[in-house]
Each structure stands twice: as structure tokens, then as C-alpha cells.
């Protein structure tokens, strides 16, 4: 009976040892996966930071472009006004010239 108990205990010991080995292997595998996930997360953080910077640069470029377009529009309107003023002066001068020639 003591012998049976020793055999049973030895069997349980071997079973527990195999389970411990299996759990240790699982633990190492999970640790490896965790490291992979951490590396991927770090890479994604860097990528996100880079993309945010790109978006910021594009927004700045867009704002600059809009400002230039607005300034061009203002300049164009000023030139149109100057042209119209010169046309009006020319018409007036031609009218005066015609009056003098009569």
C-alpha cells in the first residue's frame, strides 16, 4: 500500500512536471508574442507620429496656398479696377479731343 502510494505520488510528480514544462513553454511563447506586439505598437506609434507631421505640413501648405490664391485674387481685382479707370480716362480724353476737333 505504501508502495502503491509512492508509485502514485511519483506518477503525479511526473504529470505535474510535464504540466509545468508545458506551462513554461506557453509562458515563453506568450512572452514572445507580447514582445512582438510591443514592437508592432511602437512601430505604429512612430508611423502615426510621422503621419500627423505629414498632415500638419499639408495643412500648412494648404493654408499658404489659399493665402496666395486670395492675394492673387485681390491683386487681380485691383488691376481690373485700374484698367477700368484707365479706360474711363481714355474715353473722357477721346471725348474731349472730339469736342476740340469740332
TrEMBL record:
Domain of life: Eukaryota
Keyword Manganese: no
Coiled coil: 27-61
InterPro entries named in the record: Centriole_BasalBody_StrucProt (IPR051877)
Main location class: cytoplasm
GO CC annotation: centriole
Entry keyword Coiled coil: yes
Subcellular location: Cytoplasm, Cytoskeleton, Microtubule organizing center, Centrosome, Centriole
Keywords for the protein's UniProt record, in alphabetical order: Coiled coil, Cytoplasm, Cytoskeleton
Similarity comment text for this entry: Belongs to the CEP135/TSGA10 family.
Protein name, per record: Centrosomal protein 135
Natural source organism: Hypotaenidia okinawae
